[in-house]
Amino acid sequence: MASLSAALTLCSLFLAPLAAHAQSNPVFVLNSLEASVSVIDPVTWKEVKRIPTGKEPHHLYLTPDEKSLIIANALSDSLLFVDPKTAEVQRTVRGILDPYQLRFSPDMKWFVTAANRLNHVDIYHWDGTAMTLAKRIATGKTPSHVWIDSKSSTVYATMQDSDELVAIDLLTQALKWRSKTGAMPADVFGTPDDKFLLIGLTGGEGVEVYDVTGREPRLVQMLKTGKGAHAFRGAGDKRHVFVSNRVADTISKIDYQTMTVVESYPAPSGPDCMDLSADGRYIYVASRWAKKLTVIDTRTRQVVRQVKVGKSPHGVWTLDHAARQ
Asked: Tens digits of per-residue pLDDT, 144-155?
């Protein structure tokens, strides 16, 4: 009986974190080189559906009313709207040129896309249903990622192949400034107070930190995280942010109040975009080179499962996630 009791205790200890991990809404993984999105059941952790998209879906974003998940198809010049709860396709919007990366402004009035292959940033009016082009802004080579400040006044965009960061006035749609960065800047993350921008250097070994409170940005720090620093995901506690290091096969946790790296997690096979479970315990990350979604336990710093998806998985998202900031 003693051995049975011990076994039951061990079993309950093992099942407790799995129960805490339970969620009802699917996990979406974009398969960039298969023109599809994998829909993952978060209970069985199996792919239950694969939805055809346009060519090269890279990133995705929730509409302000939270009723649609927008999948941006860069090479098809289109946006696919999908129900975030049922994974049913709702509609396709065409004529959006090269929507590689996308973001709504915090005031929900603007929709911004970065045209990675066409070298421009597009700013659209958003009326709650449709988007109308307000301005197309020529940028440097290969716009990669965009960030919009909390006041919905400035768009920041990284230029992957000209090694630049540009700022755009959102109200006038005019270029405010451009500044040189380190090698191959990718994702950009702004602190909640709008004071600092963090830039992941895919061609380097870490994250550049810029003070953007002045008329021009000022580089104040370089955080060494790992080779190929690429994508950010806020931890939701207004203090930490994760960054995937695509070449180093790790994910780093940054404390942006002290600007220090406080944790590191193994993340195999080219970690890219991430989402975070609602309780903040699990990281869902696209393992780009392995055709898998990887789940990492932040408490144990271990990979706890992998799910096979399509070729070159990129964007990852679920409605059951931790807060973005």
From this structure: 999 999 999 999
pLDDT digits (tens, 9 = 90+) for 267-313: 999 999 999 999 999 999 999 999 999 999 999 999 999 999 999 99
Query: What's the distance, Cα to Cα, between the start and end of the chain in Å?
Result: 49
Residues contacting residue 286 through CB under 8 Å, at least 6 positions apart: 29, 30, 271, 272, 273, 274, 293, 294, 309, 313, 314, 315, 316
* Tokens at 147, concatenated: 């960030």
CA 306-309-313 angle, to 5 degrees, is 100
Calpha distance 229→250 (Å, rounded): 9
Query: Distance between CA atoms of 266 and 248, rounded to whole angstroms?
Result: 9
Q: Can you tell me which residue has the tokens 């309950």?
A: 12
Cα separation of 8 and 27, whole Å?
A: 31
Collapse the DSSP code of 247 into the 3-class scheme (helix H, G, I; strand E, B; otherwise coil) and give the result.
Answer: coil
